Hints:
The chain has helices spanning 2-17, 39-49, 53-60, 64-72, 80-92. The protein has 93 residues and is mostly helical. Helix 2 packs across helix 5. The two termini are 44 Å apart. The model has no long low-confidence stretch (mean pLDDT 90).
Amino acid sequence: MxxxxxxxxxxxxxxYLDGKDVPMELHxxxxxxxxxxxxxxxxxxxxxxxxxxxxxxxxxxxSQRTVESWEIGKSNPKGAVCRLMEIFTNILx
Length: 93
């Protein structure tokens, strides 16, 4: 069934690209490839870096309370902070 749906979709796309009036629905999917870190992951990373919460906060350019919130699971790091954690994790492993 998937093959026929895919084939139909590709044929409709070709018709559209050829200038034919084809009713189409646009479906956009995004993939979040940002790494996720649990409170335990963050504590382990901080210990491997041999830094305090205050020092990690300075490295990540966030407040100490933010690091504390991550480590107790009250909030989660996002975006560039996760990428930086990924870099440190890769270097340390």
